[in-house]
């Protein structure tokens, strides 16, 4: 499975089996997390066999079930932290899909208080959000996505629009986002791509995710 196939196959999953993440799958998961930390300067952490963060009422209300493993997106406080966590978090998500794992981006549904013993934070760092991970009871379902024309400045796709841009936007269309809002926009200006995150909660994280998808679809990665 290549990355573009992983984009198409990956859906949010909230209910997991008891199967442990171990062996070569675990080794490769650590490798991608370590590489992302090295490239980004983040302090992303894998928390295994730790059910407390998803044991609260909100998690049950949101139908999270048997979540015992998650990836904590941690980094130094800065204006770029949100977008960086989105970009590198999605890189880990898609690698996880290639490894046969399921995932779900989680913002407010987990308990930061209950996860304190599992996540190591330096004084200048912030826990932004987590990604639930494991072997899902299902592979999830395709959610509703916005039309490509709503996500970019191209109203009509024609021969004048570069194929690489169209392919990039098709991958962006499948990017996960908070409440499936996809508020970001991409603008083609010659060969330059300008982006805007839009306003609202987690929009910069969403833009980071979308940028990674665009690079894959456009053939930049």
List keywords for this structure.
single chain; 221 residues; alpha+beta; NADH Oxidase; four-stranded antiparallel beta sheet; two-stranded antiparallel ribbon; 34% helix; 16% strand
Provide an overview of this structure.
- The chain is α+β, with helices and mostly antiparallel strands.
- It has two domains: about 5-135, NADH Oxidase, CATH 3.40.109; about 150-220, 3-Layer(aba) Sandwich (NADH Oxidase).
- The protein has helices spanning about 5-10, 25-40, 55-60, 80-100, 165-175, 205-220; strands at about 45, 70-75, 100-105, 125-135, 185-190, 190-195.
- The protein has a four-stranded antiparallel sheet with strand order 1-2-4-3, covered by helices on one side. A two-stranded antiparallel ribbon has the order 5-6.
- Strand 5 (about 185-190) and strand 6 form a beta hairpin.
- Helix 2 runs antiparallel to helix 4 (about 80-100).
- The longest helix is centred in the N-terminal third of the chain and has 18 residues, at about 25-40.
- The radius of gyration is 17 Å and the shape is globular.
- The mean pLDDT is about 95.
Radius of gyration, in Å, reads: 17 Å
Q: Regions with pLDDT < 50 over 5+ consecutive residues? A: none
CATH fold title of the largest domain: NADH Oxidase
Give a short account of the largest sheet.
4 strands, antiparallel
Give the number of domains.
Answer: 2
How many β strands by DSSP? 6
Give the helix tally: 6
Task: Please identify, by name, the CATH architecture of the largest domain.
Answer: 3-Layer(aba) Sandwich
Distance between the first and last residues' Cα: 15 Å
Which class best fits the helix and strand makeup? alpha+beta
